[in-house]
Every structure is written in C-alpha cells, then in structure tokens.
Amino acid sequence: MAKQPMLKFVTVDRDMPEKRDAGIRAHDFNEIYSEFAAAKAEEQASRCSQCGVPYCQSHCPLHNNIPDWLQLTATNRLEEAYAISQATNTFPEICGRICPQDRLCEGNCVIEQSGHGTVTIGAVEKYITDTAWEKGWVKPVRPEIEREESVGIIGAGPGGLAAADMLRQAGIQVTVYDRYDRAGGLMTYGIPSFKLEKDIVMRRIDQLEQGGVEFVLNCNVGEDLSFDAIRGKHDAVLIATGVYKTRELSGENAGAEGIVRAIDYLTASNKVSFGDYVEEFATGELNAAGKKVVVIGGGDTAMDCVRTAIRQGAESVKCLYRRDRANMPGSQREVANAEEEGVEFVWLSAPVGFTTGVIEPEGAGAASGIVRGATVQRMRLGAPDTSGRQSPEVIDGSDYTEDADLVIKALGFEPEDLPKLWNTEGLDVTRWGTVRAEFGSGRTSLDGVYAVGDIVRGASLVVWAIRDGRDCAAAILEDLQTADAIAAE
C-alpha cells in the first residue's frame, strides 16, 4: 500500500521559513524570510488534513484551490501545483508574500482550530511560484486568436493588471494607463521591498508586456489625457485607480513641516530602492535617518512606515494607535516583526496637536514651524460601536508630549473625486466617494465603463483587487461577446 502523503499534522510541527535575525535585517530592505528548501516545502504541505470543507479556500478572496496544490507539493508535482495555483490567482508569488494569511486562509485552517498549528500556506504558495519562475514554467500570454476589440485600463495596480492578464488571454487588445513612471501601483511604490522585493513585481510587468499589454506611463488622466479620449479610443474602459487621498490630521500645528503623508514617505523610499534620485529624500524631508519618528495609525500601511524608518536609521520609532493591540486592523505578524526590529508601540493613544520649533538653515535665516513633538491623549476602550468594536474614549488629564522630528500620517486612504478630476458627467459615486459599480461585474453607470478594486471597495487588500479584476474581465468579455452578437444580427 502506498504511503499516505498527507495528514501529517499530528507528527510534524508547523515550521515557517527561517527568518533573518532582526539585528541584521533591520539594516537592509531585503525580504526577511529565506526560501523553503524542496524537502521542507513538501514536509509542511504534507501537514494539510485535506478536510472535506476547506475553510482555507472559502476564506480566500480568490477561492484558491489550496488543498489541491498542497497535496501536489507534498508529492513533488510542483509544475502541476503551479498550474492549479495560477488558474485562480494572477500573482500567487505576490500574494504568498504580502497577504495577511493570519486573517485569511491560515487563520481559518481546520488543524489550527484543533491546536496543531496552521499549515504554512503562504510560504508554500511563494515557494511554488518562485520555483515556477526558476524552472521557466511561467510563460508570456499567447492568445490563440487575436481580437479587434480593445480595452483601456486606468491604473496599473493589482486590479488593473489582473484584468489585463485575463483580457489578453482572450485575445483582447489592452492598454494600461498609469500616473507613475513604473507599473505596479502600490505593489511597486507603496509596499516596501522587505515585504515584496521589486524584481518580483517587475518580472510580472515584463511578462504582461511580452504578452502584448501596452503600458502608457507618466499619464495623469484628466491632465495629460482626458477620460473622454480614452473612452473614445477603446471598446470598454476599466477604472482601477485605487485610492490615494490621505485622511488628514486635525489639531494645533497639524500642517507643520515634518508631518508627512505615508504614501509620499513610502514612495520616496521605494524610488530610492530602485536607484532613483528623490530630492525630498536627499534633503531629509522624507528620510528618517537620525530622527525621532512617530507614525500615527494601526493598519498595514503604518507597519510599512515604522519598519521602513528603522531601516533608514531612525534614532527611535514609535507607533501611536488609539485602540489596543487586539483591536488593531494591521496584521499581528507584522506587529511582531516590527517589535523584533525595535519599533515601540504606544497603544491607546492619539495625537491632539503638535509642538513646533525653530531651526537656523545655513544662510537663510530662521525657519519656524518644524515639528518637534506630538501632544498625545491617553485613551481607554469604552462601549462597542455599531461594528462591535469598542470605541476609544479620552482619559481626562492624561495628555503628554511625545518627542518627534518626523511624523508620518498613516490614517488610511480615501478616493479622489474622479468625476471632478476627470471632468466627467454621469459617473455615479457613493456617499463615500467610491465609484458605484455592480457587484461581481464592476459595471458602472456609464455604458462600457467598469471599475474594480479600492476605488470601488475603499482601501482594501491586494488579493481583493486581484479578485475584482479577474471577475470584471469576465464581465467585459461577456459584454463584448453580446455586443458582437447584436451587431451580427
């Protein structure tokens, strides 16, 4: 009888890839986890219980066939495992690195609930696709038939790129427009290299270009090219811009010099990682080196900022969050990584204003309004709000000052006013400013215009943007097919 390759969770403990020493990794932007060796990947995949109802799959936004590719990995059938993984996920090697598995697939693993420790799904997913690239199994898109229809995609982030991939597979002509000089959106300029090394993103962009996707970069829609011009050029248009407008701070001196947006700070750091010259980084405005840094916020963007500041050589890094650790929205795994690297978390605290100072620039006279500290209120958790989370309440008389030379706002993102920005009538938005789109298809109030990702959902996860892009591509193909059938009658 053949040896059972699975269900080894009783005898084999959970084991993650080796994490580099915090004292070493805190000084570079390389990824913090080493690769699984083949034997280790097989061993960890073999822990899967192959349960009848795979909660890991149902709690994955892409509904990845996780038990199937775990079994294939456990039996050293990696090329088949990659094919199964790629069938539902456009970028499995990216999701394997940056998805909050502790909140999604791994957090709902059946054997985790029984006390045996979850299967290391994310690490195995990363291993499968990295191996596929190494072995040459990942190929450019080569559609069997080229079609005349064209689709314009505004935004080269995960949602737009996932849709571009699916549409090119069907032979559609695809042009992607983006405001930045490199494609990838937040995967390129928002997420630091220690979580997602940039060559990982760039090789996917190159794969899409080799497959026939055209990229028009440094293109601000509404300024360099009108939305109406894009609509006139293509049979369908997909809006996948993401959300980039930063929620603002209030309080005294909230506009002081040295208080910066998280997106500006992270973009500058990532550009420098590419070897670009960034003036604001060179002058120190967006560089944490030698500074006392305070990051405000508790999400994944805040975690990216604090860990970036450590690597830039900050004197100290503190993260202020108005709730406690158990109620923060960011990944607990990321919090643990940040603490290992020297970040201090100040729970149940919120800034109400800022103190400023004066510096003497060389030959320029005195300059005032430079942030020197954050006035912080202590909080406690009170009654739950409408979502069930406990609402923070101010503790009277608890104010104190937290020294700061650089304050980074990581309070989340809001949508830009696209109808106004693009001078477009008839594009319906919600009361939150997101584009109103049909669930599943992404169809908007404008004929032939679709929308996906954060510009519809609000700030969310890369994996949800990929799901939206793939679903919308299917809807676009269906609508183009219907239009062709009507035209042929």
From TrEMBL:
Q: Which residues form a coiled coil?
A: none
Mind telling me which SUPFAM superfamilies this protein's record contains? Answer: alpha-helical ferredoxin (SSF46548), Nucleotide-binding domain (SSF51971)
Establish whether keyword Transmembrane is in the entry: no
Pfam families per the record? Fer4_20, Pyr_redox_2
Q: Which Gene3D superfamilies match?
A: Alpha-helical ferredoxin, FAD/NAD(P)-binding domain
Where does the record place the FAD/NAD(P)-binding domain? 151-469
Domain Dihydroprymidine dehydrogenase positions = 25-136
UniProt xrefs under InterPro entries: DPD_II (IPR028261), FAD/NAD-bd_sf (IPR036188), FAD/NAD-binding_dom (IPR023753), GltD-like (IPR006006), Helical_ferredxn (IPR009051)
GO molecular function terms here?
4 iron, 4 sulfur cluster binding; metal ion binding; oxidoreductase activity
**UniProt entry keywords in alphabetical sequence:** 4Fe-4S, Iron, Iron-sulfur, Metal-binding, Oxidoreductase
Domain of life according to the entry: Bacteria
Name this protein carries in UniProt = NAD(P)-binding protein
Species: Pseudooceanicola spongiae
